[in-house]
């Protein structure tokens, strides 16, 4: 009887231990299921954000391509060596030669150039969600110091950009959308070692960028969610 009692106690203890192990396994299993459910929910949330971001990017690409097509159509009557419309880095660049816009050393836009700017302004009035940056560029030939109150190519590039910005706003583009800047000789598109290449560098670029508020909001919310998740 004593031996049987001892065996019974041993079996009871073993059973109790196994029941405890099973209970612990059950708790761990429930935790794992909860974690898996949470991971699945997080994955669905991330997939939804990714889909939203892809949709916003596609809308932005479409807006840029549509803008380029409208600008191209508006400026079809101008020579390709005087005016180019290109897509670069998700922006529309309208590059206008010095020959189209200005006489040498002048900051006053010629009638032909004014016509091009008026046509561009008409497109921009129909595109209120587009920001406009006007960049003046020169070659590396120093201007005669004191010409029309200018000291160097910085002055020439900035004053030309300002004049174009003024013409765009007079033609109906909201001034709040327009930024005038000058890059002087420091962003050439060709070497300044011959007359033809110098002429290419004497240009004004009007950079058109659709506002990306919606895209930035999505990026900010994704960034905040990722930080919070960490």
UniProtKB/TrEMBL annotation:
Its domain of life reads: Bacteria
Xref: SUPFAM superfamilies: OmpA-like
Per the database record, which ranges form the OmpA-like domain?
A: 89-212
Which chain positions lie within coiled-coil regions?
22-70
Q: Which CDD domains does the entry link to?
A: OmpA_C-like (cd07185)
Q: Which InterPro entries match?
A: Bact_OuterMem_StrucFunc (IPR050330), OmpA-like (IPR006665), OmpA-like_sf (IPR036737)
Pfam families in alphabetical order: OmpA (PF00691)
Record keywords = Coiled coil, Membrane
Write down the PANTHER family for this protein, in alphabetical order: LIPOPROTEIN YIAD-RELATED, STATOR ELEMENT OF FLAGELLAR MOTOR COMPLEX
Protein name as it appears in the record: OmpA family protein
Q: Which organism is it from?
A: Hymenobacter citatus
Its organism's taxonomic lineage begins at: Bacteria, Pseudomonadati, Bacteroidota, Cytophagia, Cytophagales
């Amino acid at each position: 009887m004593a031996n049987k009692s001892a065996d019974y106690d041993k079996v009871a203890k073993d059973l109790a231990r196994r029941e405890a192990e099973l209970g612990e396994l059950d708790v761990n299993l429930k935790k794992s299921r909860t974690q898996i459910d949470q991971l699945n929910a997080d994955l669905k949330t991330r997939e939804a954000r990714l889909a939203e971001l892809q949709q916003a990017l596609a809308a932005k690409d479409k807006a840029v391509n549509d803008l380029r097509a409208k600008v191209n159509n508006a400026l079809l009557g101008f020579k390709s060596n005087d005016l180019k419309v290109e897509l670069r880095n998700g922006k529309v660049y309208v590059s206008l030669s010095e020959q189209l816009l200005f006489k040498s050393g002048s900051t006053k836009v010629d009638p032909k150039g004014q016509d091009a700017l008026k046509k561009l302004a008409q497109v921009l009035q129909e595109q209120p969600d587009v920001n406009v940056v006007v960049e003046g560029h020169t070659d590396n030939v120093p201007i005669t110091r004191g010409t029309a109150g200018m000291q160097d190519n910085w002055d020439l590039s900035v004053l030309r950009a300002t004049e174009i910005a003024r013409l765009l706003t007079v033609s109906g583009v909201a001034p709040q959308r327009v930024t005038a800047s000058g890059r002087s000789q420091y962003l050439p598109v060709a070497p300044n070692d011959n007359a033809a290449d110098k002429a290419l560098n004497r240009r004004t670029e009007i950079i058109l960028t659709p506002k990306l508020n919606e895209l930035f909001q999505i990026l900010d919310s994704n960034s905040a969610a990722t930080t919070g998740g960490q």
